[in-house]
Structure formats: structure tokens, C-alpha cells
Write a structure and sequence with these properties.
alpha/beta; TIM Barrel; uronate isomerase, domain 2, chain A; 2 domains; four-stranded parallel beta sheet; three-stranded parallel beta sheet; 21 helices; globular
Length: 473
Amino acid sequence: MRQSLVLHPDRLFPSDQTQRAIARELYGGVKDLPIVSPHGHTDPNWFAENTPFPDPAELMIKPDHYVFRMLYSQGMRLEDLGLQPVKKTDRHVETNPREVWRRFAENYHLFRGTPSQLWHDWVYKELFDLDERLGAENADYYYDAISENLSTPQFRPRALMDSLNIEVIATTEGALDPLQAHATLKSLDWGKRVITTFRPDSVIDPEFEGFSENLKKLGEITDCDTNTYDGYLDALAIRRQIFKAHGATATDHGHPTARTKVLSKTDAADLYERVRAQPSSESDAELFRAHMLVEMARMSLDDGLIMQLHPGSYRNHNQPLFEMFGRDKGADIPMQTGFVEQLKPLLNAFGSEPNFTVIVFTLDETAYSRELAPLAGHYPALRLGPPWWFHDSPEGMRRFREQVTETAGFYNTAGFNDDTRAFLSIPGRHDVARRMDCAYLARLVAEHRLSLDEANELAEDLSYNLAKRAYRL
């Protein structure tokens, strides 16, 4: 039996009537604010080429690791979702996007109670005006209705930026990326709306696949001698400047730990020689990453790029899946982190510098109140990124505010970012964050810990101002 798709106007608000009324009022003041998306992974070619999205599966399933990790956990093969292996295989890969969509629709019930359902339902109702819940019986109806919309000018990427009220969006590119899409956008005077972010993991992490070859390519594109440590540093500085010229305001580092280490120039050069000659030892790889975080912070003092750090993730935990399909296939798992000890060298060197900002994210939720909030409540350079991945959910957002606010306050956080490849879900994700922040503020007002005027100012700051300030947008 088909069921109506309804987005309740008070969803995610407190059940307590007093708090709900306050949350409703606060949300009314921020729900229509422009969206600032300072950290994400959408494809810049979408905006540079501005061609129609090909089909619903390509737009809403293939880019979203939340979607296929859930389906994979229930035994579905990624090939059946249209994902193409990077390793040669005789296994059948589904190439019909309608069939991919049908498989997703048949299993949509698996997402009940998850943030993915909140985001997808928002897209279906608000963008496509669909009034039935997605399921096996209406999969084709959904597919046809969405496809019809995607063929119209209003659903071209740049038009969607306007209609979705997205003021600015940052993509993330590796250090060797030619940035052709961003060059095109810059020539079209769109460079201030879609900007890049410098992600140097492939040339900083000795355990990144192809590291030695990546260093050679880095030298070639910068005309620097990356056979030497000095030439390597010069090449990184040049690439940072090129990214900055293409709109970047931030770097992004996906290291497994937050370890930092200050090495002498001689020791660093010796270490570089060892890791350059692959394969390097695990201890040398970790030490090099730790030292290069400090070097990246030092460069940030020179060029003004914000530093983002994402430790606490065991990336590509499923080795066979990684070998078959490559990175970012939903198998990144939280790990315990130790920010107090590991960040000390970097923060002692740069944590009080007025022109330096480092935004820290984690998948280790246990670190919020014990480590991150006290650190951010002391070091002027440190800001806390919002709940990330498994915790960018209603409950994760609530726990984040409860665990960090008393020690770090609101203004040592960096606002919300959606961190997604799923373009159409961005407004839905921000809507969830705004509702949850308003719900938290409503409780503080009801308990007479905040005045209503303070809560209204905070709601706007959390929804819009803090992200612009933290990322210098």
C-alpha cells in the first residue's frame, strides 16, 4: 500500500510544548538564510559544464557513500548499484540506471530512522513535489518524475545553486589536480561561488597509493626538484598558491591520527629521503605525516589558508572492497584519537598565532568533551568542526552541542558544513542542522540559561555567520 510522504513542520523539534514553540520561533528566523557550504566533495565539472544531470541514480545514489554502505551492509553488491570496479573483473556491472534506482527503491525501508531518509525525503518532497513515500511499487514513477525535472533548465547545476539558495560551495581537489573546472568557472566569474580546497594527502602521506610517482608528478607540474626536501617544500607552496588563485580559502588533511611533530631541517630532509624510497616503514610514514602537518601550518601563516584536519578514521577498512573499487566506498570506520598529546607540538608552535586557524573534525565522539572542547576553549587558533559522517545526524548534533558548549562555547565552533558529494541533499542537511541547533537553543531559553534575543543571534551565527568567519568567505 502506498503511503503519503509528509514533512511535518515541527520535525526534529522538542516534544515539550514550551521548548517546541521557542524552537519554532527561532527556526523561523534562520530557515531561509543562504547556505554556506565551505567543505564538500561535489564535482566542480557539474558547475563548469552546466549540463543536465544524466539520471536519478547518477545524481542521488552513486555519489553518496551513506546510501551504498547501507545497501552493502545488507548484502547488495556495489556492481548492482552501478559502481564500476577499478580492478578488472568478470562480474556483471549494472549499467541501466533505472534498474539501479529500482534496487534502491526496493530497499529504501532500510534507511528508516537514519539521516539519509531525512535528506532524501526532503529532496523528494521539496524539490520534486512527490507526495508518496518511495518504495518498490512506485520506483518507476519516481524515476520518471525526477528524470523529467532533470531535463529542464531549472535543474541545471548553476540554476540549482540559485534555487537552493546556496551562496558558496567549496569542492575538494587533490594536490595534483589540474583545476581545469575551476579555471573555467573563474573565467565565467563563477569562481567566487564554487571554490576549491587544497587536499595534499596524495603527496604528504607515504602510505597513499602511488606516493613516489605522485612526488614526481608534483615536481613536473611545478618545475621543482622534488628529489630534494627543499624542492618538495617549494612545490607544495607553489601548488597552494595556485589553489588560492582558484578560490581556495582552506586546506584539508585526512590523516589517520592528529599526531604532529616538529623536526629539524636536517632530520626532516633525512626522513624525506627514506619515505621517498618506497615502501617506507609505518613508523616513518606516521612521523612524516606528523611533521608535514606542522609544515602545512607554517605555510598557512604565509598564505592565509585555513587548515582542516580529519583524524580518527580508519580509511578503506574493507581491503578487498578497496582493491576492487578504490577509495571512499563507505568503509571508513571511527578510531580512537588523542588530540591533547598529538596536537601539542603544532599548537605550541602556532596555536596562539592571530593569523592561523585550524578546524578539527573527528569521528571519535568520546573526544568532544574530554579533549577537543577544552583545547578549543583555550587556543585562539583552534576551532571545532561540526559532527562528521556518522555523527552528522540529529542525535550526533545534539550530543555535540551538549558535550562542547559548556567548555568551548558556541563561538569556538565553525558552524555547519555538509561534507557531501550528494548535491541535492545539501539544503536538507543544512535544514536538519538548523532545526537541531534551534531545538538545543530552545531548551536553554526554556531553562532560563539564555534570553530569547541571545538565542536568535546564536541561531543566525550557527546557521550562517560562523562558517563564513571561520573559512574567511
